[in-house]
Design goal:
The chain is built from 24 helices and 20 strands. The chain is of the alpha+beta class and 680 residues long. The model has no long low-confidence stretch (mean pLDDT 87).
Length: 680
């Protein structure tokens, strides 16, 4: 590791940048002009000192200044930026441009748009914020095309998380993609405009992607195969249904559906082959460089510029630039440069699982593959290539497993078989994709290629579904805390050192790290087994809460079961909970008790008043059918905290606040603050 740091200066600069970025994001640091001043001071100091006469002290000072400079840059980028996102208290007229094609469901049409202008107080104001719209499902809505403009009349709502346990941070994810609003439009609240579209490269590439998608369909591809082939070649996963996604996840093949280094590498290999006749000439190398850069980044933009494909395109760009200049390729430096450029442009992407998995996988392959490959040697070329594929899979899986367990709580046991069989198949499909594109002017050639691609994709889907149907093929319900994940990486690092430099010291350190991991895991399991809690979820349509007693749980739900499952599944999966069949909470219950003798609570969802004798509870949970006269209810129930779930109207809550203002009782508003968790 020290040798890697010594020989790759960009990594040495990336580390303090990451430290500053993560520190600022962790403590939610607000932007400050002092950081900007400090950056300029450090830049000036570095320039002044670096121009002085060479000395050992000068070099040390310059190194410290660079570390401080990149740490400060990380802090500046990680600081919470104040976004100029307008809040709308009433409906407004908006000019919207579609940034993607409509996604139709049974009840609505989902549109991704950019809010260009809004009209209010007799003035048009320019805006530039993304908005997700759910339209009434009509023929006109479904036929809208990317790039078109519409007028709409609605109240744009700022995207907010519900802050339930284990919930996906949709607000941050949407903000990373420039989307800040969402709202519903009925058929009579919008109309298409005649405004002409200006040329926009991203829009034109999306139109091209849709044409290629229609071309696939016309080449004889069926629905499931079309969905996977589009994800594999165009980065469009919109057609993948839940079962298909789960099948590929269970087989450990989701990385195949994420356009990344494999896909970009194949495109680059084809470019190299086409330019092989002129590669030895000076002008041929320059032409190959220009064409390679254009094709690589054109393909990256065509597939949506995901973190994995952007990383791959950046690394290959550095490679072709170095090849043109006659410089040796430094993979660690190019990887660090790609990470720095992505994070500098979009700091929030550091929380993206695709970004993290992509860079970790490449790091694992580059670092561990050469050592794993030496474990076995085969003279036969076919066997040697097969072993190399296995070594690559082992290297990538080893480095990504702790992070994958932390995010997805499952481990695919057949990942090795999956990669041995499916990676060559995916490679073949990428070559067929290029052949199909080249054969567009020749339908007689394109159709057989499409049929072959359909059969190969069918084989991939069949294998993924077969693995998904094997109960033992995937270990689920694995919960890793942050400390456990870091300890696993420490064990992996120490074992790797022991494998490279066989020494008793490294083996002993690995053993100690393993013991510490076992201890932390034991403590964590003890805490889970002894946790008694109640979680009141933030759902605006029905009351929902979960009681936990160790690994057993019971649920009260006054609404749809599928909707309840959406909220409760993250907790059940993360902690490996089991349903308590002995103690089920009735769906129609209006009064429920929980807690113990020291801390107890009551869910009170009826107009009927309790008995005359006052009852004492630590928590009082109120819902939509709780008494309007809260002051009277509090004369019957003594409590320290009132929890109001999200089914209660804002008007009713305000009246409750007015009634109990003199009593100095704390109200926890779930709709504003997110889920409430009580432990005893």
């Amino acid at each position: 590791m020290l040798l890697i740091l010594k020989n790759n200066p960009i990594i040495r600069l990336l580390i303090p940048f990451l430290a500053g970025l993560i520190s600022a994001m962790s403590i939610k640091l607000a932007p400050s002009s002092h950081i900007d001043y400090l950056i300029w001071v450090l830049v000036a100091a570095y320039i002044i000192i670096s121009t002085r006469k060479y000395s050992h002290i000068r070099n040390r000072v310059c190194d410290l200044l660079l570390i401080a400079l990149f740490f400060s840059l990380g802090v500046d980028k990680g600081s919470l930026k104040e976004l100029d996102v307008a809040t709308f208290s009433k409906p407004v007229v908006m000019l919207l441009q579609l940034t993607d094609y409509p996604d139709s469901t049974a009840n609505s049409v989902k549109l991704q748009t950019t809010m260009v202008q809004t009209y209010g107080d007799s003035v048009w104001k320019n805006r530039n914020a993304g908005a997700t719209i759910y339209m009434e499902n009509t023929k006109e809505a479904a036929e809208l095309e990317v790039g078109e403009y519409i007028y709409a009349y609605a109240k744009p709502d700022i995207i907010e998380n519900k802050n339930n346990p284990g919930e996906f941070d949709f607000k941050s994810w949407a903000a990373t993609n420039g989307v800040y609003y969402q709202f519903y439009l009925s058929a009579d609240k919008w109309e298409k405009t005649t405004q002409r579209q200006s040329f926009q490269l991203i829009i034109e590439l999306k139109k091209l992607r849709r044409k290629l998608f229609d071309y696939y369909r016309g080449s004889g591809m069926s629905s499931s195969e079309l969905a996977v082939f589009s994800a594999l070649t165009l980065g469009d996963k919109s057609m993948l249904d839940h079962d298909l996604r789960q099948g590929y996840a269970s087989a450990g093949l989701m990385h195949i559906l994420a356009v990344s280094g494999l896909h970009v590498g194949i495109i680059y290999v084809i470019v190299l082959y086409l330019f092989k006749p002129v590669a030895s000439t000076k002008w041929g190398k320059r032409l190959r460089f220009i064409v390679s850069i254009c094709i690589l980044w054109g393909y990256a933009m065509l597939t949506g510029l995901s973190p994995s494909v952007t990383r791959a395109a950046t690394m290959f760009s550095v490679f072709v630039a170095g090849d043109l200049a006659g410089r040796k390729y430094a993979v660690y430096n190019s990887m660090a440069l790609a990470a720095f450029l992505l994070l500098f442009h979009t700091p929030e992407i550091i929380t993206n699982v695709g970004f993290q998995m992509s860079f970790l996988a490449v790091f694992g392959i580059v670092t561990f593959f050469p050592h794993i490959k030496r474990w076995l040697y085969f003279k036969h070329g076919f066997l040697r290539k097969g072993w190399e594929l296995i070594a690559v899979s082992l290297a990538a899986q080893a480095i990504t497993t702790p992070l994958a367990l932390s995010y997805f709580n499952q481990f695919p046991l057949l990942f090795l078989l999956s990669n041995i069989l499916m990676v060559p198949l995916a490679t073949g499909l990428m070559y067929l994709f290029v052949a199909m594109v080249l054969a567009i002017p020749f339908p007689a050639i394109a159709t057989p290629i499409g049929i072959l691609a359909n059969w190969l994709t069918y084989g991939m889907n069949y294998f993924a579904n077969w693995v998904n149907n094997l109960d033992w093929a995937t270990v689920r319900g694995i919960h890793l805390t942050l400390s456990q994940m870091l300890l696993l990486y420490a064990i992996l690092f120490l074992m790797g050192l022991w494998g490279v430099r066989t020494s008793y010291k490294n083996l002993k350190l690995s053993f100690y790290a393993l013991l510490l991991f076992a201890l932390v895991t034991g403590i964590n399991q003890y805490q889970i087994a002894n946790t008694n809690s109640l979680t009141v979820f933030n759902t605006d349509r029905h009351a929902l809460f979960m009681q936990r007693a160790g690994k057993k749980y019971t649920i009260y739900n006054s609404g749809d079961k599928q909707d309840a499952r959406w909220y409760t599944k993250p907790i059940i999966t993360t902690f490996g909970l089991e349903k308590n069949n002995k103690d089920s909470l009735p769906q129609s219950a209006s009064i429920l008790w929980f807690g113990n003798s020291q801390k107890r609570g009551i869910f009170y969802n009826t107009e009927t008043m309790p008995p005359k004798n006052p009852l004492s509870y630590h928590w009082l949970i109120l819902s939509e059918k709780s008494p309007y006269n809260l002051k009277k209810l509090l004369s019957k129930i003594n409590t320290q905290t009132i929890i109001v779930d999200a089914t209660v109207s804002r008007f009713k809550l305000q009246k409750w606040r007015e009634q109990i203002a003199p009593l100095n009782i704390h109200i926890y508003d779930i709709q504003k603050r997110g889920a409430f968790i009580a432990k005893w």
